[in-house]
Amino acid sequence: MTPLLQADNISKSYGSLTIFTDISLVVNKDDKVALIARNGEGKTTLLNILSGKDTADSGKITATRDLKIGYLEQEPVLNDDMTVIDQVFASSEEITRTIREYEEALTSGDKTLIDTLTSRMDALQAWDQETKAKQILTELDITEFDKRTGQLSGGQRKRVALAKVLIDEPEMLILDEPTNHLDLDMTEWLENYLKRSNLTILMVTHDRYFLDRVCNQIIEMDNSNIYRYSGNYSYYVEKRAERLENMQAITDKARNLMRKELEWMRRMPKARTTKSKSRIDSFHDLKEKARGIQDAGNISIKAGSRRLGNKILELRHISKSFGPERVISDFSYTFSRFEKIGIIGKNGTGKTTFLNIVTGMLKPDTGVVDTGETVRFGYFRQEGINFDDGERVIDAVRDIAEVVQMSDGSTIGSAQLLNHFLFPPPRQHDYIGKLSGGEKRRLYLVTVLMRSPNFLILDEPTNDLDIETLNVLEDYLATAGICLLVVSHDRFFLDKISDHIFVFEGNGTIRDFPGNYTQYRDHVRKQEKEDAMRFSSKKTSAREFSGKGKEQPAAALSKKKQKLSFNEKQELEKLEKDIELLEKEKASLEEALSGGKLSGEQLQEYSRKHAEVSGKLDSKSDRWLELSEKV
Q1: What tens digit of pLDDT does each residue of 72-128 get?
Q2: Is residue 103 part of a domain?
Q3: I want to staple 316 with a disulfide (CB 3.0 to 4.6 A). Which of 221, 368, 442, 473 is the partner?
Q4: Taking the model in full, what pTM does it have?
Q5: Residue 96 domain flag
Q6: Would you state the torsion angle of the CA atoms of residues 435, 439, 440, 441, taken in this order, to the nearest 10 degrees?
């Protein structure tokens, strides 16, 4: 094993707040490592230090010479004035400049300059880089390559930053929550991309299927201790359970010994001999051991919920459009008591709009939303709550209620409730601005659950929550006497809590699938396979018909294959890639043209571009057919 990056006894504090102390770890070449820790343990801080963006207060970072690291931050910093395509090539200035000059030369029609730049593009392999960049961006649903990054949404910016680090081809990737802002199809694409790559990876992610399928090493950070597991997430769960069991046995033994030592301490004579002094030291050591895993803290969700009557919620023929864009079309559904529904679909298909209609925050254009009298919604929204960073944690909770009813009917104070969610008294009196992103999301969850909802609506609840919190939240949701609607791109989360799935297919269509996410994906793959077999069968029949039902001799086929020159083979491969990109660009333009959000000037421009793309697509398709006949 060849170490690429190593940290030795590094520590970091911000003022009086200690993030971690004496952390040591190593990432070897070809490792695909996941870093797992609770929110607030300093995962992002550690990644910042390892990437060189921040420095440790003490300790040493060692990297192999000229190690090229690609770092995807949680909140990437991009140049707002750059176009998307320039942004992804920002670290390859010569390639970016050459591509731009070549495109300008094509526009001007300067044949001499085109020939010169074509040679330079060949030398830099810029054709491949540009094609790869556009393919990756398209997979991440970024198709407007000349759009300024300053005009992009937060999710689009994160996806452009992800494309950039993948295109740069570093020796090592450091990824902080790479699946945030990706829909399910994008997540699966990224999972397969990283799994096939030869990159060394260090990542923080809460996506447990992603961890299980991509990573071969798990590093757990717990109270400034590092535990390394050589295996995927499933292996880590098994071995961590064994470690905690061993710790519990040591803790129990130490607790029993401490009881005896405590009795001795109480009987201890006033005169402290050397022997008694050593026993006092031993007592304090035992006290630390007896505390054991208690210090690790365990989140506990015991929030109450109000009684839910027989009538829950009925949606009758609801529809919603924004201009000509239909997001919900004539949808009806009657909710049953305690059912738990997952919601999936590509970005922009109306998932959040649907939740807003259900909760009454948005009115449908047509149809009826009939809510039962006993229903009390709790809505955990994707954008979260706007906390005042200058307010203390305890005050944010007390502003809602001083006393909270629990699931067993008992009541507790707001400070006790915060303890259940891993906010100990010192943390409760910290300013909210000092909390990590995950801790703020956990606090937001507290404010939603403490209102005792019986119909819980969660819009992307898993973003920035640590795995331990997710596990406990899942257990709570699975057993709570509530109705649940949840939008999530976390496949593990959906599998664990949903009875069935609402699939938002676009153009206002919502399909109810009777099963969890994995069952739905298996169903889709089976259908795709059957469709591919039917298509293959039709092509075979067409070939047989064109050949008048006679099989062509092998010698004739061999002769045909020889007619395709090396350059034509290269051209055929490039045409296949170009056609795929053009088809996606055409679909994107058609979606925009039918979306109703374009100005008159934009409509003209998009229509012109659509005609241009359609022409290119037809031309390249004809050439592809021409070359394919030679194969």
Answers
A1: 998 898 999 998 988 888 777 677 778 778 877 887 888 888 888 888 888 877 777
A2: no
A3: 368
A4: 0.72
A5: no
A6: 160
